[in-house]
Structures
1.
Amino acid sequence: MPRQTASVARLSHHSASEIVTIEGAGRGELPRRRSGQALDRVRQLTELLAEIVHPDHAIDRLAYRKALEARASNTVRALASDLACYAAFCRTELGVSLPASESRVVAYLEHLEALGRKPATVSRRLASLATIHGLLGVTSPTLAPVVRDAMRGLRRRMGVRQRQAGALRFGPGIDAALALDGEDGAAEEGQGKRSHRNAFTLTALLAACDIDPSGLRDAALLSLGYDTGLRISELLRVEVVHLTPGETGDGAGVLFVPTSKTDQQGEGAHAWISADTMRRVAAWLEVAEIRSGPIFRRVAVRRAKAWAANRPVRMESLAPNARITRERMYGRPAVPAKVTYTVGDVALTPVAVRTILKRTALRAADLGLVDLYGSALDDAIARLSTHSLRVGLTQDLFANGEDAGPIAQALRWSSTATALRYGRELAPESNATARMLRNVRQ
């Protein structure tokens, strides 16, 4: 049965006269969202490939569909998007679309540059073309020197700097832990608190989360995402069975990551979880009554307004032509406001997580937890993405003096290049030079 509570201590933003009902996982039906029929991207990609390939290289649709099904869903999504872009270009150009010639690929690069596509996007679309040619069993023209030179010229003209997701670093608290002992350390801690208030941090967002079911879920999601540095697809695949208490007895835990972007075969990896995160996750699982399956799920909120009591009306006071209703004759008792929280059965979507991040950040600004206003606030919120927690953890690890190798291993990267790129925008007051010279050159 659904649980009802009017506890002000548990749900502080509800009034004492409000009836709050929490329908745990599997105990209620969520309202259906309006959505079109889901597209089968693998089938769509296979059909598009069959449409633009030359008859001399006709494909076996079943074989190609099976080959595409072996790839990660995000990879298939990118291939479908990139091939659709190339097909649209080919419809305006005469000649064979696939396999492509070197001159056609160069013309395609010029087309993408004219559209204002960023070098990173163009590079991905070239990589997708190379993958498609590999499926066709022919040499990819993207490897030709003329194509490489064309791409090099595009990068030089447009620049290669990518807009990185805004980092959600831990914030106040980590400065004290990393600061030197003594008065200098105390000074650094104060400087850290002031600098962190000029940007969104994990600490600020956790403080902005409410203590209703949605807020408990959001806090658990943010906390676990930071501790483990999981990609959004990995974070949304976390299930109850993947969490285990640690062996140190300090309340920390361990998360088993069954698969990741760099582990498509499913060898698995493990990530450490802080005691604070374990408590937050446990609080969410308890209120949502989740015993198995995905941890982070949709929460639907239904609200009903309160109705004031109506007294019965005496018959002699009614006008001759007045309508007589049961409510007028017998009155109506007061009806308190009602709020019902219903927890779903399936995991959140990446779009939902992005909305949670931006909504919580805006609430943190409204509560005065950050010193951001006007255009600076808009820009900071715009930079937040589902990758912000991973970027923030990476920068905090660099600020703690960790090398790129151990960071790449902890965050499950196949190389150190991405870790170094994330650390490139580390705040100057936290980089290696600042750590070494702060107490030497005063």
2.
Amino acid sequence: MSGNVSNVDGGTVFAAVDIGASSGRVILGRVHTAGTGSSERIVELEVVHRFPNAVVEIDGGLRWDFDALFAEVLKGLAAAATVAAAQGEQVASIGIDTWAVDYGLVNKAGELVAQPFSYRDDRSRAAVEPVHRKLDPARLYGTTGLQFLQFNTIYQLASEKNLDGLHALLIPDLIAFLLTGQRRTEATNASTTGLFDAVAGEWATEFLSALGLRKDLFPPLIQPGETVGTLLPEIAAQVGLRQDTRVVAVGSHDTASAVAAVPATADDGGENFAYISSGTWSLVGLELKHPVLTEASREANFTNERGVDGTIRYLRNMGGLWLLSECQRTWAQEGFRPELTALLTAAAALPPGGPQINPDDSYFIAPDNMPERIRAAVRRTGEILPDDPATITRCIMDSLAAGYARTIRDAERLADRTVDVVHVVGGGSQNRLLCQLTADVTGKKVVAGPVEATALGNVLVQARAAGAASGGLAELRALVVQSHNLQVFVPELSRL
């Protein structure tokens, strides 16, 4: 459920700043009873501002135009203030989530010294080997539990030339700093840096020292639900919010917020679920109480990242719908602009058993003529993929579903857990072909939705901090189930 509704529980609303690698939104969230005479509580969202986000080439590298991004955040908060005021509501707090690993460098005066690099820039590749000469990969994994990706923060920082007098602020923390003046590092995002102890839940300071980095390079840690600070006077005046409006730490890594809103219930397996946060990337894994730091887990390239309430997001970061969106961008440049629904319908009509690619291949990370890259990858397997959008789309969908199935099987084995149901959240939950293929290949029931899981997780953590929601993750997830119509896909073996 979503839309423009009154809050029957006192006029308190929450602003979620939710930014992905290709777009961002500012969303108002309301937690209230379903209606007169009802005791059922639901959470609803209203998007008040949307804006694009993209990697740009600046000073010879791929960077984020952070100044433009922050200006859009301010526009969104101003829109949130206007919409809330028109309905007699008050924005109680602001929560921020974005993608992981990237950071901005801020000097003592609080100035951003350069636009932040994007993880899609190739600069960190050369830093991997020097880091591994100082810190053996097995030792790194045994402490951090982090999946090896060449763009992890640890390798990005190792490529920096001079960090004297600077703080590294991860992107959501950088936004929070500019809003409040307070420098903090939220824990779920800190766990993606490669410099965080997965067991202790603290910075792995010995790794910082081994790489010649200051132990205070990152600001102190803060947990989801804690208050970063209140708005700076000039920010409050600019956006039209009260100066005492709090900025609350949420699962600032967008996947942490998304997993917090996975609608898992005791009726469909309780803890025995896998999740796929499907968007630009695919985050596929399990929710655990303790990290898995075995050598077998490292060899399988699984990551152990923090979730809300101290949980462990045991997952692999896989290729995602970036492959399709980049294909669409190339086709549009060539004058072909098919509707996504028509494209997927045409792909679904094709017979199974076509060529597949490895969607995790680093060959697909950078933007550039994705259809031809995919066809070239298929040629390297000895097969031929026609230069046809429907066929290429089907190849992407089959490849993603097969990758999901492999990853879930590996996670079950490595974590000694049996999965009963797969939850797909995020944009990919609307992709009926991908959800059905995932059910077919995994042989498990797939529950699709909600699309806005990240924003829901963001809002629910804020609501709990304000007393508008209560309980642990099970209770927060019950609100999601009560608030949304979910789609169920069961395996159709005849499709394989």
3.
Amino acid sequence: MPPDETPPRFPFSHRGDALGPEYRDLQEHRPIARVLTPTGERAWLVTDHTLAVRAFEDDRLSLVRAAAPGSPRQTVQAMPADAIASMSAIEHAGLRKEFLAAISPPRVVEMRPWARTTARAMLDSLAAADRPADLFRHYAEALPLAHTCRVLGMPFDDAAPLIERVETAMPIRERPAVDYAANWAGLHGYFLSLLARADLPDGAVRRYRENNDARPPEQRVDDHVLAETLAWFFGASHIGAVSVLAHTLVSLLAQRDAWDRLCELRAAPGPAVEELLRHSLFLHNGLPRVATDDVDLGGVTIGAGELVLISADTANRDPAAFPGPDRIDLDRDTRGHLAFGRGANYCPGSALGRMTLQVAIEELTRRFPTMYLAVPLGEIEWRDDLLDRRPVAIPVRW
């Protein structure tokens, strides 16, 4: 691109039913290219799978620097700086282990029977709904939200009113600053009140509080900081898990051979789950990194301090890595997919994400093998205001 040419504005498409042509063009001709973020910042966009792996594994491309004050930003900062800094405070105090323990593989295995019971109850409600029914509201959104509440140990009835606040706190388009401040105050206030409850069930919130209370007074983390971290964790868990499941269900219902195969198996084997994760176009934005030094990537020199966006979902649709990438192939070797990232910042919630997706698909295909989309795929409306892609609704019949 000539130096005086204005880069294209990223992201290019908010739809989740197909990869936009702009992504394909860059992947083929300019796998690392200049783009403009929604904030107007210049960034490098990586769309090639091999280069994405290299970017994830290069310690000079830093996630920590991407979150630091003054670094170039991909999206508006809808959370106050204190909330972002709270994560560092929690890490320094040694309390982050409570979150990691709550979503560790052994804890997720223990949670699986409850997850199945919960999914079946939600499908009972779906069966009683008028048709066409909204699979997104009744299931794709509700089930991951229930899982997040279970992990945290918070009442499920409290969660639904928080969804709009979470979405406001993680936007891709700018709104008035006063809206963000008021929204965060409400989200933070809820978790501050949750920490004060004496009757919390076992979960990350209670263990978090007990661990903090057991520390010497001078080493305790202030409740306001704990509440900010809980709000962040709740939001991040909700946005990602819902988007993955919603996109996967739309894709399966659109590609009937894969849907019918899962119905026949009455199971979603591990390799099938990995293929569905690879196929999912749930990341509306890129995964940000900031260069701490000059870095050569794919013949391009990224200057120290520059922003790099790794488009993991585009890389997962790279035909050089996964032939016929737009087709769901349940027998495909998907080793190397980047749905949970790679390297030091590999998503710590991967075990929970895999379990949620597997249980959701198995229970749905067993209960409603004749389910189908009630509208043509192209008529499904997709949100264009969030960090992750998700449909407004998934109308279905059976």
4.
Amino acid sequence: MRRMLERQPPRMRCLHLDRTSVFLTGLGVVLCLSSNAASALQPTEPEGIEEPALAEPLTTADRPFWDDASAGYFFRSAYFRRSSHGDEPGLPEFNQRGAGVGGWLYGTTGKLANLLSVGGSLYFTVPLDAPEEHPYNFILRDPYQDGYSVLAEAYAKLSYEDDSQEHALVIGRQSINNQWFMTDVYRFFNKLDQSMIGRRDIRGMHPITYEAVTLNGRLLDGNLRYHAGYVTDMKQVNDIEFRNLYQAVYQLLTWPDAAKQGETDGMAYVQVNWKPGPDTMLSASYHMVDDLLNMGYLDLDHVFRFDDRRYFRVGTQWMHQNSNGDSLVSGINGQPGRGFSTNYGGIYLEGRPFPWWIPYGMAGITSERAQIRSPYSIGPSYLVQRVGENSAAGEHTWILGTVIDFSSWGLKDLSFDITYGERSNRNVDGSPNLPLADWNEAAADLIYIFPQDGPFKNLRVRARYAQVWQKGDQWVASEGAIRSLNAMTEDIRFDIGLNIPFF
């Protein structure tokens, strides 16, 4: 990766507090705080491993708006280091590193007139390790490695439910979570968001949040779920501002603020998930982002069960993307880009021949015309790895892995996941004569959830290590030439999280 930002002069690091944040902190931040803090605590690893959500308490109180309120603090601390070294002069090298502690204060009211509730969350991070020469680590505020605070969620929610259906209209700053998984299977990490818009919670310090109007519901006794909405702005994982959907995406990269000049009016989307039976799920979605791109997605997931814990699972998916309007996503510095259209198809296999062993594998092919993009979520693609996320144009991909679940030997909620994958036949969008080097990646995750009956109930710890080897011909745009690339990227992460409800 090429450092695109000129070195900035050092200055004192500080924790940014806007007026709203100070006011809320002064009040004790009891109700400033998160509908989707509960949805923020979503599983990304094995069956049964969840960051616990706050259950809405049942009550017959006369004042449900106050008596059904809930609030708390989700503690999180994270360390991230990613470095790359090439063995050829002039090839890109980088070192991204940072660590922080913080998380978010959250809370919601009960319902007023059995209809209206409000809530929100205050995100904050304090630096623990903040070398100024190693920014862009998804944890600290770029480019100076600062701490920060931001009112990430502040919303009103209108909801209705009866025995067979429920609907919710949410207006304001919010987390968008459209997850729904197959039951009683090991939930593979790469379908984290299960949508082209989501939280993108990679277990750094904070997820993405949005300024939006969203409508979500369940029908047919909960077997059909729908999601729809219109999004105007987005706050990136380590940003303090809500920006339009072009500027917010590139806030994550190494561009200076002055280069983020693109404008877009927003995104409209719709998604449907349907379980015609307990072992089958169909998913479909469409997202239209003004002047950027359109994204469509289809997925079929089915499980063949042998007994309570042994099964075989197969999934298949198809994705289509094409440019929209000025196609800013393929342009530079907010300028109109080249139009594109591309497709991807993939298959996923997973088994559990023994309670302690879960092998899995996936493969996919991407059109030669353009790469697959997921700027507003991890995305639902099978091909997401720990470091490599989007498949390049023309890419042929296969990934194999296995999980060891130690609960069968009495170590409940301890798991080890190891995976290896190869990406080949890659090229710059629509240009097979401009090659990208092959991408080979190996990774391992060790995850532990502390016992629910102990003093550290709900404490989740993860350690991750990954390596990427890039070898072969690589088009270097800055030189206008094809170079031989032989480089290695190392990725190390450690994070802990603990939900602490106040009431």
